[in-house]
Amino acid sequence: MIKYIENELTQHVPLDYSNADEKTIALFARDIYLEGNEQAELLFFFNGGPGLSCVRDWRNSAWILEALKKYRVILL
Description:
The protein is mainly β.
């Protein structure tokens, strides 16, 4: 059976880098890879956007499952 490893990552960054002490926003990423394939090349997918949905249930996404055969996928 194929085992996928999934890590959820959150990084808080300044909303305005010219005034980094003010408000921050949280950036979320999901790191997915096949067990034993931690050193695979990274494939970044900039997920969603204004007016667009993002991949939440990646296990039903054929392109992600195919990409995981070769890459470690980072969904941003």
